[in-house]
């Protein structure tokens, strides 16, 4: 029996064109290059503290982010057969409206060309099995700050013509008003119509006040925003989609949630109970339609989860909430691999490859893998 095929769907890159764009900026987010030191990414407003020397602001962005050869070596070292790379947050959300379309096309073309070049070099005749090589695909970035939703829709449709693009990645702000914004309906419609997978990833977190204020954040660094803020941000975003009836209007929309769905697997029952008893909804005498489908139905039909939860208890909860291991996808976040638990790798390797991963690997316009 052959070993399981390991497909890493949560692995980020800042490709050279994106790094160059960040280097050209002076406002957050931007990249600063200290003399004889690793570049620094100033990604959050709190990172851009004038009291901190500029060479120490933000976080280091080493070659694991932008050198694709480092990523391929990482894949070989950990036995990963395929990586679906994606632009790391904050994606293109911060761009001026007139720049968004041009940069989205440039970044997505860069992703396509990178994947094509790597796959061609690794298997020129396309004769080796997936177990015998490292293969790259990608999730595209969207021009969400563009002045019109049809620009986003057109990019979603264009991505379907790029052989190595397998969906899109986006954050929780959508067009700027959250994922329950009715203006996003054309985007949801385009994703559903094209059968494109949406990889939903946090970035904005929660206000500092949720953790006790800026002084507490400064005291404990990134622990509270990343460990708690990111998962809750994801959970809130999906809950707003549910409450707004997004999954009722777009019943075949497919979403992959980062970090095993945040706290959604644990809180799904509580969310469902609150919906059932909410007096504002028509079902209880109110005047707001409310969601028609249950949280559990959406979780087990529309939503996939990655395995980036760093513990067996969380992994088991994700499998249970998702409706089975075949709806959980392996993800490693290469750039944080020092903190990666071997337990998760072992557990994820034991999972049966989901049918949707076969789609990611094999569904191309010209049959290429």
Topology record:
Layout: E1 7-13, H1 16-23, E2 30-32, E3 40-42, E4 59-60, H2 63-66, H3 68-78, E5 82-87, H4 97-122, E6 135-141, H5 149-159, E7 165-170, H6 185-194, E8 197-200, H7 214-220, H8 223-243, H9 246-249, E9 255-257, H10 264-277, H11 295-301, E10 303-306, H12 312-322, E11 328-329, H13 342-349, H14 355-362
Parallel strand pairs: 1-5, 5-6, 6-7, 7-8, 8-9, 9-10, 10-11
Antiparallel strand pairs: 2-3, 3-4
Helix pairs in contact: 4-5, 5-6, 10-12
User: What assembly state would you assign to the polypeptide chains in this entry?
Assistant: single chain
The count of β-strands is 11
How much of the sequence is in beta strands? 5-15%
If you compute it from the alpha carbons, what radius of gyration comes out, rounded to the nearest whole angstrom? 20 Å
Reading the helices and strands in chain order gives EHEEEHHEHEHEHEHHHEHHEHEHH
Number of domains: 2
Q: Unreliable stretches, pLDDT < 50, 5 or more residues?
A: 336-356, 362-369
The span between the termini is 22 Å
What structural class results from the helix and strand content?
alpha/beta
């Amino acid at each position: 029996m052959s070993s399981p095929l390991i497909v890493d769907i949560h692995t980020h890159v800042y490709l050279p064109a994106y790094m160059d764009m960040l280097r050209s900026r002076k406002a957050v987010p931007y990249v600063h290059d200290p003399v004889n030191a690793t570049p620094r990414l100033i990604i959050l407003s709190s990172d851009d503290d004038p009291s901190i020397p500029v060479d120490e602001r933000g976080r280091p962005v080493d070659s694991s982010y932008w050198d694709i050869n480092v990523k391929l070596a990482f894949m070989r070292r950990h036995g990963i057969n395929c990586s679906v790379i994606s632009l790391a947050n904050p994606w293109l959300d911060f761009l001026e409206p007139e720049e968004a379309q041009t940069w989205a096309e440039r970044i997505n073309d860069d992703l396509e060309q990178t994947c094509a070049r790597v796959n061609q070099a690794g298997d020129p005749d396309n004769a080796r099995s997936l177990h015998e090589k490292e293969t790259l695909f990608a999730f595209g970035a969207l021009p969400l700050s563009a002045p019109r939703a049809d620009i986003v829709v057109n990019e979603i449709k264009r991505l379907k013509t790029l052989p190595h693009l397998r969906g899109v990645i986006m954050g929780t702000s959508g067009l700027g008003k959250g994922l329950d914004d009715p203006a996003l309906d054309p985007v949801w419609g385009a994703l559903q119509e094209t059968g494109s997978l949406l990889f939903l990833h946090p970035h904005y977190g929660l206000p500092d006040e949720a953790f006790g204020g800026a002084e507490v954040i400064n005291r404990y660094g990134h622990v509270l925003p990343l460990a708690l803020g990111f998962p809750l941000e994801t959970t809130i975003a999906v809950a707003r989609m549910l409450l707004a009836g997004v999954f009722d209007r777009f019943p075949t929309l497919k979403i992959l949630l980062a970090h095993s769905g945040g706290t959604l697997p644990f809180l799904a029952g509580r969310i469902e109970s609150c919906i059932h008893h909410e007096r504002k909804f028509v079902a209880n005498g109110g005047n707001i339609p409310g969601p028609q489908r249950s949280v559990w139905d959406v979780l087990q039909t529309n939503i996939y989860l990655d395995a980036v939860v760093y513990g067996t208890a969380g992994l088991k909860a994700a499998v249970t909430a998702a409706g089975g291991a075949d709806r959980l996808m392996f993800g490693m976040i290469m750039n944080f691999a020092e903190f990666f638990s071997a337990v998760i790798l072992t557990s994820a390797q034991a999972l049966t490859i989901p049918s949707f991963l076969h789609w990611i690997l094999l569904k191309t316009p010209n049959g290429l893998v």
